[in-house]
Amino acid sequence: MIVRKNDVQSFDFGGLEIFDYTAGCEEQSSFAVIHVEPKVRHQLSWSKRSDKYYYVVRGRVEFLIQDTKVTLEEGDFCIVRQGEKFYYHNTSDERVTLVLVHTPHFILEEEVYLDD
């Protein structure tokens, strides 16, 4: 399977610009590129289904995974395991770019978003 960047449409998800390269596919994993604008934060959530693999392509982003906060920079990687509560937050004045892999593939109905 080959997916060209120009064939992928982005969508807004709570201020996050997401390019889902595997939307509509039934692959084992899903792959997305996420642009996180300055001061934008992903809502506190957890997955009933998937482990999430995040790689920081550009910028610096703060992650909360369970009760641990950590700042990741370009080239850093983290895993958010199924069932772990998390969010990430771009506290800088520059856009952050992340790569996200869900295994098994992403299904929105299997994600739980919490009021925080």
Overall description:
With 116 residues, the chain is mainly β. The chain has one domain: Jelly Rolls (Sandwich). Helices cover 0% and strands 50% of the residues. It contains no helices and eleven strands. A six-stranded antiparallel beta sheet has the order 1-2-3-10-5-8, with no helix packed on it. A three-stranded antiparallel beta sheet has the order 7-6-9, with no helix packed on it. The protein has a two-stranded antiparallel sheet with strand order 4-11. The model has no long low-confidence stretch (mean pLDDT 95).
Any idea what the radius of gyration is?
Answer: 13 Å
Q: Averaged pLDDT, please?
A: 95
Query: What is the CATH C-level name?
Result: Mainly Beta
Tell me the overall shape: globular
Major β-sheet strand ordering: 1-2-3-10-5-8
CATH architecture: Sandwich
- What is the CATH topology classification name? Jelly Rolls
Q: Enumerate how many helices there are, as a single number.
A: 0
Total domains: 1
Low-confidence stretches: none
Helix content: under 10%
Largest beta-sheet characterization: 6 strands, antiparallel
The first-to-last residue Cα distance is: 39 Å
Query: How many strand elements?
Result: 11
